[in-house]
Amino acid sequence: MANWNDATITEFHAKAGKGVGPFGDRLMLLTTVGVRSGKGRTSPVMFHRDGERYIVVASKGGAPDNPAWYDNLKANPKASVEVGTPTGTETFEVRASEAEGEERDRMYAERVTIAPGFGELRADDLAEDSGHDPGADRLTGRTGTGVARIFITGSADGLGHAAARRLVALGHDVVLHGRNHDRAQQALRAVPGARTALEGDLASIDQTRELAAQANAAGPFQAVIHNAGVYRPGAASRETVDGLDDVFAINALAPYLLTALIEGPRRLIYLTSGLHQGGDPDLSVLQSRQLRWSGSQAYANSKLFDVVLAFAVARLWPHVLSNAVDPGWAPTKMGGASAPGDLEQGVATQVWLAVSEEPGAKVTGRYFYRKQAQRAHPAASDVTVQDAFLAACEQLTGVRLESTVTK
Known about the structure:
Blueprint: H1 2-14, E1 27-33, E2 40-46, E3 48-50, E4 53-58, H2 68-75, E5 78-85, E6 88-95, E7 97-98, H3 101-114, E8 127-129, E9 143-144, E10 149-152, H4 158-169, E11 173-178, H5 181-190, E12 196-199, H6 205-218, E13 223-226, H7 246-261, E14 267-271, H8 295-316, E15 321-326, H9 343-355, E16 367-369, E17 372-374, H10 383-397
Parallel strand pairs: 10-11, 10-13, 11-12, 13-14, 14-15, 15-16
Antiparallel strand pairs: 1-2, 1-5, 3-4, 4-8, 4-9, 5-6, 7-8, 16-17
């Protein structure tokens, strides 16, 4: 979180408070006095105006706890803010007060109109900041950027790119991914408003570990969408640097490793395929040197393992919403230009699962198609298959996916 704050503050000053990341011109630097340290703490916070007052929302991306600056303001309502102006930036003192009742509801509705992503959050509290009169009782409240932070693997093009654009348009804070520097930069150029793009080749266990470290530095995330994948039905088997079939390594092993290593997401979405129904849960298929290798079968197997992983995580981590999504046959580079599906419809479910507060989206251990739960391959719900898959992945990576369930 500190890394993100520092990077955002640097961008704010470089741009004089204008056009900063997904916040545009609506970002302030709010400096409060730390409850324990007694020192000034500066936080980038989205705002909107209500007359002379500055309104901030303590949503923390929908998290159950308060952002630190909210607790600071409750203890000491005196603060300072820095905002962009037509000629640069301006810093002034404020006094915070918490909005309540109808006023709070009105202010939150205004925020949703400006940034629809807030409509996906529960408006437990709303804050409003003072104007230039430090003596007036004005704003406070629970706040934060009010934006969900989401990491999407394989987001340089295709479904990952489309999901990222949709989430940025909703006002969320999106972190992209590409397998190397060029692909990461391509992703960043293709999604204006995304915060940054991480790099890492998911065919490599070492690079996937490093990608997880990058993600932890950029997080924490409300949701991770495991979107990256390869499908080469007519190609010969390719061996990774670790001696594995690259379809399995990228499509199934990498999501396992990222899941085990990325800290704190509350929602996990694993992209699978209807072809998983033809997958074989026999773990002997993990060996790259099979006598008879089929690209189509390898893909189906890997997508079955994605559902197995999603259901296993739902069982072992009941505090996390973990689901698998079939996006359909969409016209992407992987699906081909002649695919009959719709790209926007293909990303709607994973976006919904990542940020929606609708009851239908706040479930776990499900396999979805077009926002409707479907029947998955029976092996996905088989605890014996789940445990065998997790054990195989642990053996390959040396990383265990720990259970939070007390036996």
